Amino acid sequence: MAQVVSDPKTNPLRVGLRAGGATVPAVFVIFGATGDLAHRKLLPAIYNLGARGLLPNRFAVVGYARSEMTDDEYREQARASLERFSRTQIDESYWTAFADSLHYVSGAFDDQEAFRALGERLARIDAGHGTEGNRVYYLSTPASFFPVIVDNMGQTGLNDPAGFARVVIEKPFGHDLETARELAETVHRSFQERQIYRIDHYLGKETVQNIFVFRFANAIFEPVWTNRYVDHVQITVAESLGVEHRAAFYEETGVVRDIVQNHLLQVLALVAMEPPAAFEADAVRDEKTKVLRATRPLSFENTVRGQYGSGFVAGEEVPAYAQEEGVPADSNTPTFIAARMEIDNWRWAGTPFYIRTGKRMPKRVTEVAVQFKRVPHLPFTMGAAEHLEANSLVLRIQPDEGISLRFGAKAPSPTVAISTVNMDFLYGSAFLHDVPEAYETLILDAIRGDRTLFTPQDGVERSWEICDPLLEQWRSGTPQVYASGSWGPEAAFELITRDGRRWRRP
Ligand code: BG6
What is the pTM of this model? Predict the structure, then answer.
């Protein structure tokens, strides 16, 4: 049967898709311009914003890194990255204009002379591109360079241009509560809080933003979004990849700092927060921080840590974490955690949030499953409802972005037999529209000066308060080894079955 596809131009679901681009001129400066993140994510995101007409008319990019390079060489590198990593093909008619807006300045991060030279170059670019002294600085470097870069920006006046200055800081923001506070102090010497954009790319994902819309744009879900009706919530962030070439980074980071302290707690906050008065920076950020304050810190008794051993993922044999290049053979860095979390407030008391995240899981999947309580009384014979599960609502963040509601239905038969069925919403078929990359949304917001999707300092600090006690307890002992391609160590299953529940199979 021919598939019926509605015309995207007339598809009513497309009405309201984000239209407003940035209009105020600006220069976007990338510190760490030759790094992985800049090439894989930042340049493709900026390019795609430009190609969709969402960048200001007067706009330029300046890459800054240690390697010596001319503007033309930088443009060639950028072109190669776009060919590899852009989600759309390069549009030749736009490429020339885009390439003209790319510039490169070479220098070290601790070299004030080079920062001054950058400042002079920026002034010339302002004159050439009409960018009016407005700057968005993006720190795309290893975290150890953040303090020295912001310090030098302060010393050389880069923090105080003729127009506005904003600084976008990648995760991790600190290594624990204490270092997060120290970093904040350093950054606050050169920038005010309203100029600081702490980025967590999960918040730029369409499906993560949709948690907010789903909850607060619909009348029917919010009334049941409480401990009265919800038995528990499961949040899974599973990756099939291993540590890849990031051993040095990961050895210092581990799964809690890499995923839980930021991405996972941000998702939890969106699922559990109270409705804010408006979808704007202070209101949303305050509500998220409030629910994180009510979230109990992670504890040893309610967590399981794992490290991947060798095994098979998608039919391919893969090595154990401890055998990966750059990882010491006796490493006890955890690559997996499962935890039972509690939120001590009226809405959630008694309804646990189970989280799990790990590398080398059977597949890449991020989802939130809201598991509802069973009905108080079933007016059917036992046999009829044998296959009936409690209702659940699954928000699939990635891949197969969508939402599924599971409920009981009468199976077609002359007797009463109840089956559990799915009602599905899929982004791909509903909107017929490519989902933009998270970085596109967040970079555009930084250029437009919208901080709603960026993390405030108090939220960052609270997230460290939730993680720090466990990180301290995990200093001793070792993680349990799980086979690559499995859903984690056996103990992760026990963690939930001891409460009479089980993990959903995503
Ligand atoms: C990053 C982590 O923040 O997020 C990586 O450092 C992880 O370890 C990545 O792989 C996952 O992001 P995404 O968008 O692919 O889910």
Answer: 0.92
